[in-house]
Write a structure and sequence with these properties.
Nucleotidyltransferase, domain 5; 3 domains; 17 helices
């Protein structure tokens, strides 16, 4: 029997009326904490198994497997006057992208916000809660099967904690960002989280995600491109993981060998016999047609040249400036830029994370000015200083 709200500090919602009552109890909050539990090991589309929502004093675990109509909750989630607070939001938002063809916004992602307050880059939720609140979360349910019913008390406690502490942390970190004048710096990153093309993959373009394409000859590349589109379409139609339709290594081997018969297809080592039996005729037809086509051009691959001694020295100077700026803002310098970024900047590159969004505001502009000779580097009283040129 699932725990009641009085026993565990949250409500387990598994009926339409209970969902309506919970949504009414929220009384149009200005923000809410949101998380999901799902499985996708055996499907193409993530299967939503639980929704967790929290506002101060009100937490619920909502069972979408028991409730056919989630519209009372979705009306709230898609209300743009309510901020949705998540941690590492991409996989959660992907579920809603498939569910509704749109992402619930506006979004506040605490993982994206954390580095601006001195937390580590890409910090996981458990570490974030421990750093922010001193609370150690139980990780025992990390790999649980959320589709199995009934859910155990330990599972629901774990799920509720994913929003319980998020709701406690959010007001504080938002206020700290506002006080430091950094909240606006996150606007572009949060808006980027709402881009639908981050979550919905068109079959025609998925070949770009396959590794090793630059080593293929034109005919092989054309075959791989067409096979990848076919595989994605089949995976979507059958709701299967794409690798269950055709694995990448088999797909690449088919491209290289271009089998024009079922007998030749069956000789490919990485192709399971059942795949050939199920899809062999389709694969051969695609190979024959694609072998006569010109491939789509590969995205331009830009391999950085080996830095010169002078560029390495400039990167050292930029690193010194970066550390001073990070110290000024009391954040981790690694959250601003890596050594690779600094070398790229020294080589004249500008398409780097350091020169976008809040990193540009915090450090990018100053490092760019130094690279361009607009700053003077000096040492006074054993202190390195970067000053504007007169």
């Amino acid at each position: 029997m699932p725990p009641s709200s009085t026993e565990s500090g949250f409500a387990y919602i598994d009926s339409p009326q209970a969902l309506v009552d919970f949504c009414n109890s929220l009384q149009h909050p200005g923000w809410l904490a949101l998380d999901t539990e799902f499985i996708r090991e055996r499907t193409y589309y993530p299967q939503l198994c639980l929704l967790q929502v929290a506002v101060p004093g009100n937490i619920a675990c909502i069972d979408p497997l028991a409730i056919d109509d989630l519209s009372p909750l979705l009306d709230i989630l898609y209300d743009r006057s309510i901020v949705k607070v998540l941690h590492a939001c991409s996989q959660d938002l992907e579920i809603f992208a498939y569910l509704k063809g749109a992402v619930p916004g506006p979004v506040f992602d605490t993982q994206l916000a954390a580095p601006l307050l001195g937390f580590a880059e890409q910090m996981g939720y458990a570490n974030f809660v421990r750093e922010a609140l001193g609370v150690t979360l139980d990780k025992a349910q990390t790999r649980t099967d959320w589709s199995h019913r009934p859910l155990a008390k330990a599972q629901l406690d774990y799920a509720a904690d994913d929003v319980r502490y998020l709701a406690q942390i959010y007001p504080d970190i938002r206020q700290r960002l506002e006080d430091l004048g950094r909240l606006a710096w996150l606007k572009a990153e949060f808006e980027d989280c709402e881009r639908l093309d981050r979550y919905l993959h068109e079959p025609a373009g998925v070949w770009r995600r396959i590794k090793g394409l630059d080593k293929l000859r034109p005919r092989a590349l054309a075959i791989v491109q067409q096979l990848a589109e076919w595989r994605e379409t089949r995976a979507q139609q059958k709701d299967l993981p794409r690798s269950w339709v055709l694995k990448d290594d088999a797909l690449m081997d088919i491209g290289r060998l271009a089998p024009d018969s079922l007998e030749k297809l069956a000789k490919i080592r990485n192709l399971p016999p059942k795949t050939g039996d199920r899809y062999g005729e389709e694969i051969i037809a695609i190979v024959r047609a694609a072998a006569q086509k010109q491939p789509e051009p590969l995205p331009e691959a830009r391999r950085p040249a080996k830095p010169t001694a002078a560029q390495e020295a400039l990167a050292d100077v930029l690193h010194a400036q970066l550390r001073l700026l990070a110290d000024r803002y009391d954040i981790n310098s690694a959250s601003l830029a890596s050594r690779k970024d600094l070398v790229a900047l020294a080589q004249g590159e500008e398409d780097i994370a350091l020169l976008r969004g809040w990193r540009l505001e915090m450090a990018g502009n100053e490092l760019l000015a130094t690279r361009n000779g607009e700053r003077i580097v000096s040492v006074k009283n054993a202190q390195v200083e970067f000053t504007r040129k007169d």
